[in-house]
Design a protein that fits this description.
Number of helices: 27
Radius of gyration: 26 Å
Shape: globular
CATH class of the domain at 457-638 and 649-692: Alpha Beta
Structural class: alpha/beta
Strand content: 5-15%
Catalytic activity: [(1->4)-alpha-D-glucosyl](n) + phosphate = [(1->4)-alpha-D-glucosyl](n-1) + alpha-D-glucose 1-phosphate
Helix content: 40-55%
Protein name: Alpha-glucan family phosphorylase
Distance between the termini: 45 Å
Bound molecules: pyridoxal-5'-phosphate
Keywords: Allosteric enzyme
CATH architecture of the domain at 457-638 and 649-692: 3-Layer(aba) Sandwich
CATH topology of the domain at 457-638 and 649-692: Rossmann fold
CATH superfamily of the domain at 457-638 and 649-692: Glycogen Phosphorylase B
Family: Belongs to the glycogen phosphorylase family.
Largest sheet: 10 strands, mixed
Organism: Marinobacter metalliresistant
């Protein structure tokens, strides 16, 4: 393949700066250039939010028109100047801690959720990685991220008329994605080679610019690879262990090789989950080469600067591979090294846990990462305890609280999740660049009146309802002639009604069906004349998760009941774009996982900046964030040691959830004074915004 295949279109000379703007994914959170993209091609921009695609699809005629348009010229020059200023600005890092991180941080993750226009993610892990990168850009941290460019990524969802989830894998044409081929100093497209059994696999390298940080992406779809190998980077999280190992080799080994090839020598390597653990072995190999040492010395030397973040809550969630598969695949890579496959297996062996002999020894990627890392962290205080319990078998004689797993509670990149209305309010209360430095923990909205705060909430809810109607109409309002058409199209959603949101992966432990445990009680809440409730749902079930799919069917069936009357809507194909709209508009965000399975949970953090309130299980981040002033907790103070049978547990949690809704949430929302303002509710919004937004 020649470079020419990826040479972008030509633009009028004057407009060449548009390339730079379109390829910096800063437009996903900083909306200064939105008007430019809308002016170029409104339809494409509104339907894809992909500036690069807009630039590549706009007609030559339109470009010539705009080149002559004074208003466009002015906006364009302003944005170019602003971008230049952004790139060259001082940051928190450059001013307060320049050089502390040496040559920077290498960050590895299997998935990245940066934008719905770069669909290389499945859920929370990837969205966290994306938010982390954006926050690193704001702070000016020298982070280089490494990941895979999936040709299909995770599946796209539609729901059939009988409630069945349908899965589609549209092709990610790299020329349409906001990425560019990664070029070296000689302008050559960078390629990386990883040895596989009997052949080398060639990887192409791409670059996504995320503000001041780079995300480097590898893909195996090089025409010179064998057909089977070209598809290694096709789907995210396939069930096939062989393909998963191949992907993890490409990510870990290929990823570290890529950094070395570019001459980068990061001082720190951060693994987000264990999928990329092989990077740490490859890093040690590199150190060996640079220092002419043996593997053990290299391991000791690099280990102190390897950091492993685990997100898993159950032992079965760790990635593992059979010894035989591993020996086959890793042999060519390990050839000539002083680390053979058995020694590598030993570094991540589950034998301690299973007591099995070496014949069916398996490599556990989390253990490998743990054994190669100086620091390990879970993602919330409760998850630290859970992680220590999971790792206990490998630290047999250690008291559990001494097992070296720390915790760093997740957070979100606030500027990616605020609405235009809340952005305006925060700017007035706390200044323009408030998220670009470590914030003072408090920024009370004393200058903002209750009227203004409530107006913000109403505008956000209105916009959400408009969005839901457009989405439902593009879902063909379910195409079912027997339907109540108005209900199916969201026309019965109401602007002044308390709106509850629930969106996440549909899987059993997240209990998306908790509200369905008592349908009659739910119906009463929805149908109330003077204090109604409406619910918006979204979420995908993993293709093999039959129970998750069953819950989607049950919600769809419930939402079609004539007595529900369009008060429950299901939005298909949950992704970053959908999440963004939901978390801006809902009044209350519901999260009800089975304790203590939610390692952290991040979607609830996204509503904070917009004045949404959380109603959530006392688990993950909410167990740290919750107090009675900021929202509602199901079974506050619960500890996981007291876990009884799960069904008993579910029923009592469902009861508690309904009690909270019936006695606190709903009355609170509708308790308005003569001016029509729910003063107590607004007090809660203030407390939640003030106490939690900066911290999370
Ligand atoms: C934030 C987010 C998630 C993670 O949310 P959880 O609360 O951790 O389940 C998953 N998917 C998308 C699209 C998101 O935006």
């Amino acid at each position: 393949m020649t470079l020419a295949a990826y040479t972008p279109r030509s633009l009028p000379e004057f407009l060449n700066g548009l390339f730079r703007l379109a390829l910096d994914l800063r437009w996903t959170w900083h909306h200064g250039s939105d008007e430019l993209w809308r002016a170029l091609d409104e339809e494409t921009w509104d339907s894809t939010h992909n500036a690069w695609l807009v630039l590549n699809s706009v007609s030559g005629e339109r470009l010539e028109e705009l080149e002559q348009d004074p208003l466009f010229q002015q906006r364009y020059l302003e944005q170019l100047a602003a971008h230049h200023k952004f790139v060259n600005a001082n940051t928190w890092y450059s001013e307060d801690c320049a050089g502390d991180l040496g040559q920077g941080i290498a960050y590895f993750c299997m998935e990245y959720g940066i934008s719905e226009s770069l669909p290389l993610y499945s859920g929370g892990l990837g969205v966290l990685a994306g938010d982390y990168l954006k926050a690193a850009s704001d702070l000016g941290l020298p982070v280089t991220a490494v990941g895979l460019l999936f040709q299909q990524g995770y599946f796209r969802q539609a729901i059939s008329t009988d409630g069945e989830q349908m899965e589609f894998y549209p092709y990610n044409d790299p020329t349409m994605l906001p990425v560019s081929p990664l070029r070296d100093e000689d302008d050559q497209w960078v390629r990386v080679v990883v040895p596989f059994p009997g052949r080398n696999v060639r990887l192409r390298a791409w670059k996504a610019q995320v503000g001041r940080c780079e995300l480097l992406l590898l893909d195996s779809n090089d025409p010179r690879n064998e057909p089977g190998d070209r598809g290694i980077t096709s789907e995210l999280y396939t069930g096939d262990p062989e393909k998963r190992l191949q992907q993890e080799m490409v990510l870990g080994i290929g990823g570290w090789r890529l950094l070395r090839q570019l001459g980068r020598q990061p001082g720190l390597c951060h693994l987000n989950e264990g999928h990329c653990a092989l990077a740490l072995i490859e890093r040690a190999f590199g150190w060996q080469e640079d220092h002419q040492s043996d593997f053990q010395t290299a391991r000791t030397a690099t280990r102190a600067t390897n950091l492993f973040t685990t997100h898993t809550s159950v032992a079965a969630g760790f990635d593992h591979f059979s010894g035989s598969l591993l020996r086959l695949y890793l042999a060519p890579w390990l050839e000539g090294r002083d680390l053979n496959a058995d020694q590598l297996l030993e570094l991540g062996s589950e034998r301690a846990m299973t007591g099995a002999d070496s014949a069916d020894q398996r490599l556990n990627m989390a253990l490998l990462a743990l054994n190669m890392s100086g620091r390990i962290n879970g993602v919330s205080r409760i998850h630290q305890k859970v992680s220590q319990t999971l790792f206990q078998p490998f630290f047999r004689r250690w008291p559990i609280e001494d097992i070296p797993a720390d915790f760093v509670t997740n957070g979100v990149h606030t500027p990616s999740w605020d609405s235009p209305e809340s952005d305006a309010i925060w700017t007035r209360a706390c200044g323009q660049d408030r998220w670009c430095r470590p914030l003072p923990m408090s920024c009370p909205m004393t200058a903002i009146t209750d009227e203004e705060l409530w107006e913000m909430r109403r505008l956000q809810r209105n916009r959400l309802i408009g969005y839901l109607r457009r989405r439902l109409s593009s879902q063909h309002c379910e195409q079912n002639p027997a339907n109540n058409h108005a209900a199916a199209c969201g026309l019965l959603l109401d602007h002044e009604t308390l709106t509850l949101g629930f969106a996440r992966r549909f899987t059993e432990y997240k209990r998306p069906d908790l509200l369905l445990k008592d349908q009659e009680r739910l119906l009463r809440l929805l149908a109330s004349r003077d204090r109604p409730l409406q619910i918006v749902l979204a979420g995908k079930a993993h293709p093999y998760d039959h129970r998750g799919k069953e819950i989607i069917r049950r919600w769809k069936a419930f939402s079609r009941r004539p007595d529900v009357e369009g008060k429950v809507v299901f939005i298909e194909d949950y992704d970053l774009g959908v999440a963004n709209q939901l978390i801006q508009g809902v009044d209350v965000w519901l999260n009800c996982p089975r304790h203590p399975w939610e390692a952290c949970g991040t979607s609830g953090m996204k509503v904070l900046v917009n004045g949404g309130l959380n109603l959530s299980q006392y688990d993950g981040w909410w167990a740290e964030a919750w107090n009675a002033d900021v929202g509602w907790a199901i079974r506050p103070g619960a500890t996981f040691e007291e876990l009884r049978s799960t069904s008993e547990h579910d029923l009592s949690d469902a009861r508690e959830l309904f009690d909270l809704l019936e006695h606190e949430v709903i009355p609170g929302f509708y308790d308005v004074d003569e001016q029509g303002l729910p003063r107590k509710w607004l007090q809660q919004i203030r407390a939640s915004m003030d106490q939690l937004t900066a911290a999370y």
